[in-house]
Design brief:
The chain has 161 residues and is α/β, with parallel strands linked by helices. It contains 6 helices and 8 strands; from the N terminus they run E-H-E-E-E-H-E-H-E-E-E-H-H-H. The radius of gyration is 19 Å and the shape is elongated.
Length: 161
Amino acid sequence: MKFTCPLIAVNDLETSKEFYEKVLGQKIVLDLGWNVTFDGSFAIQLNFADIVSVDKSSVMKRSHNFELYFEEDDFDYFIEHLRTFDDIEYVHPPKKHDWQQRVVRIYDPDKHIVEIGESMAVIARRFLDEGKSIEETAKLIQHPIDFIKAVSCDRERKKAD
């Protein structure tokens, strides 16, 4: 068995498509008119309650027990991009976690939480570029040394190119 993707229920397919395309830069790979799959490996579904045969009133908004998580290499650019939309509702403004990752959480049109976090590889590269050792970087961002080593190797490869 293979897990394919998460699917979230939406009330207005066109509004949700516009949100995921324009705000989050997702590309549609399949649009069936009632179900849309994005290249980020998730799907949105219209008429979800009918399809799974549950009471429509049981489909919750703001359940706060699920989020779609995205990583962004240029977090500052993304925050500026987000500010160009007047109708974005924030779960919280941009903040930094103990592991040094900057994140923002917003609601999509159906009140699902969407988290956009700064790429952990970008954070690791930043600390390495500042002269921190692999071990110091691993401790600062609370990631395994093997992850930092892989980022470091990739960083060196890019410098050589």
